[in-house]
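Journal club prep — side note

Before the paper discussion, L.F. wants everyone to see what a predicted structure for a comparable chain looks like in C-alpha cell form. Sequence:
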Amino acid sequence: MAVKLGFIGAGTINRWHMKSAAALGVEIVAVAEPVAAMAQEVKSTYGIGRIYTDYRELVTDKNVSAVIVGTPNKFHAEHAIAALDAAKHVFLEKPMAMNLAEADAILAAVKRSGKILQMGMVNRFKGSVQVLKKFLATGRCGRIYTGQTFMYRRRGIPGFGGWFTQKDLAGGGALIDIGVHMIDLALYLMDFPKPVAVSGMTYNIWDSLERYTYTSMWSKPVPGGKKDVDDYALAIIRFDQGQTLEVNVSWSLNVEAMSPDNGLRLMGDKGGVALSGVENPRIITEEVGHLVDIHPEYANNDPFLAEMTNFIESIEGKAEPLATGEQGRMVQSILDAIYQSSAERREVRLD
C-alpha cells in the first residue's frame, strides 16, 4: 500500500518536508493547522485534500498512514503519541520532547503501536557527514577519544518574544534548538557511546527586545514577548569508555563573525575528522611517516530529500530509520542534564 502522509503543523520546517514528499511523489492527504491562512497556503501549493484545525481529526483519518510532526516543542510528545496510538508511523522533528519523561512516553507508545518512529535529524543525511561516517567505520582514525562541536551566532535569536524564546513552549533556547543538532551529529559519528556525566552552563543575557541590537532576525519579533531561555550554552560530556565531547552553542554572543559559524572535530589515536559548516569534510591523519590531510570528494545532496526518502523506505520495509527514537532519547538525556547541571552548579551523573 502506498504511503499517504498527514502533516501536523504548516510552519517552516514542515514546508521543507512537504517539498521533499512532493518531489518523491508521495501523496499528502491532510494537514492539521489552526491558522487558516497557513493551512490554505500549503493546501494550494501541494494539492492537499483535507484541512483540519484539530490534530486529533488528522490522526484518526483512515486515509493517513504516516504523520509528520513539525510543531512547537511543547506539543511533540502529545502529537507523536496520539499518532502512534492511532497506528500511524511517525516522523518527529527535533528535539524529541521537552524533557526525558516525555521522550520515554513516546518510546512507550512506539512499543505499544509497533509502528516506526524516525527522528528529524537532517544533518546526518548530508553527503559530507556520510563520507566521514564511512572513513570512521574503516578504523582509519583509530579510537575516537575526544571531540568538539560548536555553533556561534553573533545575533541570531529566532523570533524574539515568540514561541522559540518561551520556556513553557520550547523547553529551552539555543541549546535545545541548535545545540541538539551539533550534539546529535557528534554522537552519530562517534557511534553513540553511552554518556555517564555532564557538566554545563547556560546563560540568558538578552532577555528584552529593547536591549537586543540586531540587523536581521529569522522569524518576526514579537514586541513585548517573553524571552526566558538560554542564548548561550556550553558543556562537557563524559562517556563510559573515557571519551569526552565539548559543546559550545549560541544564539547571540559578542564574538567575531565566523564563516562558517559552526563546526565539528573528532580526534582519535590514529587520526581525526572535521567538518566546517557541516560541509568541507576532512580526515586529519598520517601516511608513510608524514602528516597528511585528506579532502574527500563527495556528492552534494539535498539532506531533507534524503531524510524523507529514508522515512518512506523504512515504512515500506526497504530500509531502517537512520535516526531512531532511542538515539533521540539519548540526546534528550544530555540536554536535560546540561540544563540541570547549570541550574544546580554541579556535574550531573547519567549512570
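L.F.'s comment for the group: The chain has a mean pLDDT of 97. Keep this in mind when we get to the figures.
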